[in-house]
């Protein structure tokens, strides 16, 4: 049995707000689950989704999960995975490491929780660890993931930097993995432009990986957020990198692969994005370049959208862009963002509900587009509602 006061003391500054005992126990239970499972564990997702994190943990400790929630074989396999990690003191050690590293714990009950990752279903994370501002995670859901090869060419790094800088200039957050090559180029260009960037890590957040990017990770945390799913103290492994990629895809409105080899891990991210229904863009390169073979593969096999400019990337996330016609004229592509703008007035303030009625879009979609338009300066907000700038 978990004592609420002990849980409250151990969580300490990792959580904020006036939390009830039930809230504290839920968060503590999620830390325990975080220590027991590997990212994306479907059995854990099913149990916690059906019973709640605390009750599900109690069932596991009693060995009582062979019921209608999990198939008997699935329950046995799950217990065999989890039992070796049920060691006294593990969670206290995790929380101690997290406190020293000044991390924050974010769960689905928190306002900062990015609802976009819930699209992963039973494979969604049970909790997230954050260095920096947790609010940056939710903002990233309207942003773009820029990923690619670690062994990037100068061409790839140049394109990644240009795309990130131009997207940042209009307020679009950039998501990546803080790795060498394309990831680092995208993060650095965003920081240089004063934008917000989020880095998803495959290991514990108490140290940077790769270690050479310690300064970069610190800079990202200072203005945005560094996010991890595995418990503090966990080492990055190949499996965790692959699972981390699903979070990059889920957290972003679109994924753009700038440069990738034939078997690059970035293709894994692109496939996750496609499976989630997120747009995927690929930057073409020389047909003789092995560093672009993966991008060409995405264009051929995944029907990814060919992107060469930031304007084309903005189209992926629903921003209306000018499309050059053959006669030199331009026409606006009709997008949901265009519908939101058409429902706005420069003179009369309108509420989100009114804009939703006029545009024919759902209130959640309207609020998402209004947020992006507000970041770009296209709309203003006051007590009366929203106006075109």
UniProtKB/TrEMBL annotation:
Gene3D superfamilies, per database record: 3.40.50.450, Winged helix-like DNA-binding domain superfamily/Winged helix DNA-binding domain (1.10.10.10)
Query: Which domain of life does the protein's organism represent?
Result: Bacteria
Residue ranges occupied by any DprA winged helix domain in the UniProt entry: 334-385
Instruction: Cite the Smf/DprA SLOG domain residue spans from the record.
Output: 105-315
Stored InterPro entries: DprA, DprA_WH, DrpA_SLOG, WH-like_DNA-bd_sf
In terms of NCBIfam families, this protein maps to:
dprA (TIGR00732)
Give the family from UniProt.
Belongs to the DprA/Smf family.
Which protein are we looking at?
A: DNA-processing protein DprA
